[in-house]
Amino acid sequence: xxxxxxxxxxxxxxxxxxxxxxxxxxxxxxxxxxxxxxxxxxxxxxxxxxxxxxxxxxxxxxxxxxxxxxxxxxxxxxxxxxxxxxxxxxxxxxxxxxxxxxxxxxxxxxxxxxxxxxxxxxxxxxxxxxxxxxxxxxxxxxxxxxxxxxxxxxxxxxxxxxxxxxxxxxxxxxxxxxxxxxxxxxxxxxxxxxxxxxxxxxxxxxxxxxxxxxxxxxxxxxxxxxxxxxxxxxxxxxxxxxxxxxxxxxxxxxxxxxxxxxxxxxxxxxxxxxxxxxxxxxxxxxxxxxxxxxxxxxxxxxxxxxxxxxxxxxxxxxxxxxxxxxxxxxxxxxxxxxxxxxxxxxxxxxxxxxxxxxxxxxxxxxxxxxxxxxxxxxxxxxxxxxxxxxxxxxxxxxxxxxxxxxxxxxxxxxxxxxxxxxxxxxxxxxxxxxxxxxxxxxxxxxxxxxxxx
Length: 453
Ligand code: CS2
Known about the structure:
This protein has helices at residues 15-19, 21-32, 47-52, 87-95, 125-132, 139-153, 169-184, 188-195, 212-222, 263-286, 292-296, 299-313, 318-321, 324-335, 344-348, 351-368, 374-393, 402-411, 415-423, 426-429, 432-435, 437-452, and strands at 7-11, 37-42, 59-64, 69-74, 77-82, 99-104, 158-162, 196-197, 201-204, 230-233, 237-241, 257-259. It has 453 residues and is α/β, with parallel strands linked by helices. It is globular. A six-stranded parallel beta sheet has the order 5-2-1-6-7-8. A three-stranded mixed beta sheet has the order 4-3-10, with helices on both faces. It has 22 helices and twelve strands. Strand 3 and strand 4 form a beta hairpin. The site of D-mannonic acid (CS2) has 10 residues, from helix 10 and helix 15.
């Protein structure tokens, strides 16, 4: 007899998860009269656990609607494990028969994908080390080991639901897990194929990092000392591919949509919201702005965001393309939310991982059709100029490719030569420079003009 599976293990228990999937789960519990609980997992740092454990893992969400500010207590999280301290506790939680779902927000770099085909990079040193480690430490390794334990112990099926901003996140994760499992344990791939499901999902809610000001507002409004509250907007969206291996919370009762194919929604969100966000992050920081709402209030930067959204909107599948103008206008309003203080620098990090899906893919498609893309090109050029400024000024560059990018800077003979080297980075631009040298040259010149301005 196995106990009823009403547990979710969430890998990457950051602010986004706390204001999104945890929020939906609590609402779904209330609407459906169920009692799903979440075990959170921090992959590296213990700070979220250390802040939340003394308060029983409950925390406040501040919801900033246009006409009001609300405070809600979220109490679905009841434990946080720290993988870097004790990875085997995480494997055990995944293998527990009471766990029906693993959800993930581990960011793009947590998947260790090979840029050329978005398959697991088996040569990545961390993945290679995990392959033979007794207890793995990467997300992919921990998940594969958890699934292996479920297979060995007959713990039943598992749904693994990616909530990261990656195109086809479920399918990509499934392929990565199968590649790892196939190398690590005989029979595991077959078991996964029949006992696990990897639905894709599109998640959306703007959730900045926690600030001291937020803690003070929460104290003022609720009378509680919350060590790690989270602020967000009123808007949220979750579109989930309806493909589960077993039970799940009735998230649709909290406003999620279950659909046969999330790809159109995912593409619209990544290219329009995240694409415009990244454009504002780089061009806005270069223009001396700190927050998204400051950048979008600037006529020139708002024009750039609109251009990116219009150009990318034109690349979308028809079912979402038709309403892309309204979607863009709604985004401008969301970006204008002055209560969020969403830092451009927060969005700017990990550019090498974010640019391909957000800006380079739509540019490539437009280039292929002979269409001009001044907005997308300026956004990409702004990233290169932004990197150049940070390297020149000795600012830290928060990006898994920082070392390589820095090496281009150090060995370059002037800015254009740096920009050309960046534009041949396969992880970001694949073969753009070889295929369309004139586009790469134009981007390099544009980046130089921005850098010099
Ligand atoms: C942002 C996202 O930091 C970033 O890269 O573009 O976190 C964005 O706020 C969310 O995807 C909104 O759903």
